Amino acid sequence: MSYIHVKRGIDVILSLVSLILLSPLFIIIMMTIKLDSTGPFFFKQKRIGVHKSHFYIYKFRSMQVNAPKDQPTHLLKNADSHITRVGKFLRKSSLDELPQLINILKGDMSIIGPRPALWNQYDLITERDKYGANEIKPGLTGWAQINGRDELLIEDKARLDGFYVNNYGIIIDILCFFKTIKSVFKREGIVEGSKIERLS
Predict the structure, then answer these.
(1) 46: closest CA among 118, 138, 109, 136?
(2) What tens-digit pLDDT sequence spans the chain (200 residues)?
(3) Which of these, 102, 118, 114, 164, lies nearest to 141 by C-alpha position?
(4) Which residues pair with 43 in a beta bridge?
(5) Range 185-189, long-range pairs (CB < 8 A, 24+ positions)
(6) Alpha carbons 107 and 138: distance in angstroms, whole number
(7) Which runs of consecutive H residues, i.e. helices, occur in the chain?
(8) Residues 184/177, Cβ–Cβ less than 8 Å
(9) What's the pTM?
(10) Would you call 174 helix, strand, or coil by DSSP?
(11) C-alpha angle 196/159/6, rounded to 5°?
């Protein structure tokens, strides 16, 4: 059995168990979102999947409903004005990403892989083509996420995604998993606003 099939099995088991165990937290987050601002609990956005297919990613809504929907947050002018009070906490703690467990269960994503680009991030998509990084499932977290995240230049992000592709296997996935836990607790690499417009 190839690792890609083992990886899918792990994704299904971990995402399903996580959704069950985290369901009380989901309810709490949904309640706080609703109390803090008007709009839906969840936010969906068109992203690039395996082989450059399109799918809709799910997140807990962290921004006002009238915020631009197809632009990376760190490219927005006055990004803080679009982010809700609860949203600031959700983003800094990465809790806004938890609904992507649904995407993993559906098969749109994997737990580990290159972060899915926005459908219109053509520069990043093109750069990833050089490394074959568009040919595997995107992930909830990945090698670029734990090595700079929003602070990375597009070229560096794609290069790191290429490193993951070239070293695809259980070892790098385990490293990504545990280093992600460390990065989340330290809140590393999160940047908001257009002061770094060269980044993606």
Answers:
(1) 118
(2) 789 999 999 999 999 999 999 999 999 999 999 999 999 999 999 999 999 999 999 999 999 888 777 766 656 666 677 899 999 999 988 899 999 999 999 999 999 999 999 999 999 999 999 999 999 999 999 999 888 877 789 999 999 999 999 999 999 999 999 999 888 777 655 555 544 433 33
(3) 114
(4) 59
(5) 187/92, 187/93, 188/149, 189/145, 189/148, 189/149, 189/150, 189/151, 189/152
(6) 10
(7) 3-21, 23-36, 79-82, 85-93, 100-106, 122-129, 154-166, 170-186
(8) no
(9) 0.86
(10) helix
(11) 120
Sort strands 110-112 and 139-141 into parallel, antiparallel or unpaired: parallel
Tokens for 167, please give them. Answer: 């070293």
Two tokens, residue 149: 């995240």
Angle at 72 between CA 28 and CA 55, to 5 degrees: 75
Q: Residue length, the chain?
A: 200
